[in-house]
Automatic annotation (TrEMBL):
Organism name: Streptomyces luteogriseus
Keywords: Kinase, Transferase
InterPro entries: Carboh/pur_kinase_PfkB_CS, PfkB_dom, Ribokinase-like
Taxonomy, superkingdom: Bacteria
Designated name of the protein: Sugar/nucleoside kinase (Ribokinase family)
PROSITE patterns membership: PFKB_KINASES_2
Amino acid sequence: MSTEIDVLVLGGAGVDTIVHVPELPVPFADSHMVRPGIVTRAGQSGDFVALGTTALGLRTHHLDLLGDDPEGDLVRALHREHGIGLTAVPQPLGTKRAVNLVGPDGRRSSLYDATRAADTDRLPEDTVRALATVSRHAHVVITQPCAHALPALREAGLTISTDLHDWDGSNPYHEPFAHQADLVFLSSAALTDPERTMRRITERGRARVVVATAGADGAYLLADGELTHVPAAAPPAPVVDSNGAGDAFAAAFLHAWLDGTPPRRSALHGTVAGAYACTIPSTRAAAIGPEELRAGVAELERPLPVLPATPSAPPATRPCGG
């Protein structure tokens, strides 16, 4: 089957308002002066995955609900600027939006507007099927309407990936995504036993590859029943914001994995892209390019230098007759 799309991204289109705060959690006060200011820009999880895969040369198309509002205009402009295909289904409730509180160390806390979605939201099945027919792979964001699109994607024969983000391993909302995907990403942040959760995903679902990202500790990869640790990459510049790091990891992993790269080496691509994303201010939307990614992976794979052996100290002597 010929394809026109390498990665079809479903869901996760929206706008974030970035607020830099003096610390997290924010100390209670009547007011705070914040610098470098408050900025609203397009870019939520699906947008960032689509941005990342496009920057790495994958033909990408994004499908989601968008409002006819200023936030939706920002999302449309982001896709036009970066040459990302977009199918926007009208959303009467408006475009998804969130406020991201970003601390001095780059950590963030996100506040999502729950009024921009309804339990009855759906991506039109005929649109999902039409795009799936010409796509090679689907990355499904865990926003509400996307779970209902999973059967159509499966019937179309696509491989599917998803990111469960900071799933605690038990919230039932995430289970349709965890069990229907061939490739599952998640953060280990809320997991007391990451390996147990990763193995449960493979036992109960279709996934044969599960990746749990662990921030500065790298990531854990479960593939073919074997759990391995993947080292973290050194950021190429100071860390300023962790927003979008997991999405960058997923995009770079997909770039390698869809090219036939083994899972562990694909994960090295992910750690390099995730580290790069942490150096991008939260007020911008930018992704690592192919050359920087190749260089970063080569650096991770470079053998450690062999240091000369330290000469052993001479044996201690004792005075005669001691």
